[in-house]
What does this fold into?
Amino acid sequence: MEFTERKFGVEIEFLHLEGCSQSDVARVVSAHGVECQLASYGHNTVSYWKVVPDSSCGLELVSPVLSGEAGLNEIKAVCQALSEIGAKVNKRCGLHVHVDGRDLSNSQIAKVFLNYAKYEAVFDSLVPQSRRGNNNSFSKSIQTVFNMEAGYMKSFVKAPALVNFMDRYHKVNLEALARHGSIEFRQHSGTTDADKIINWVVLVIGFVEASIQSGRRFAKSPAVEPSLQTLKWFLRLTESDNSLLVRDCARYLTNRFKVLNSGLSVNQGLS
It folds into this structure.
């Protein structure tokens, strides 16, 4: 799997902290060497991290455009700051990752979307029950579109056509392309844990790269039900990869699956 220099951004939601203002959050994050400022809620992209109010759970830290290991190191610093101020999350909070899609064609964007739909049950197995299926109104299933296409297309539908079938509150949000030039992955549960955030970033960037490099035709559902193993095969994600980031991600996903799916084999998909 490739963790490339493709640009990305993160939105980290957490609960409002009693006795800790937005200014306090910005000050502590900045003290860790990462510029952070207060901002009102909005969708403008800036060159620094911003702490904004979030209607679903309290507060949100929004990154600037990041890339590579330098971007991951900023996430580590921000999470350390959040740990110091005692930031907490609950089921109302989410983690959103934006992956740059400005260089992608419509058919490549469609491949990313439809491949995610194909493996949605596997992605479900890597998050808590509150973020699976249609259990969260801010991160709804995209299976409807996948099923509508009957799992097979002679040529890929164009991305703008996919946008017409949904609002932005889905596990994969294509509306973000018009606003930010990015594909937004909204499924992950709220967390301030750097390992969880970094591995999810590595996973979704690798997923985008694998999808756009896959064949021109979208494959029919495989003979075996999609599983963690088939997702790893699709990503070429192994624990013996030359990249430490990729090796760590492979181990993390295996352990994450085991923790969240007690009694299921790593080779099993979710029905």
Notes: Residues 194-213 form the longest helix (20 residues). The chain has two domains: 8-93, 97-260.
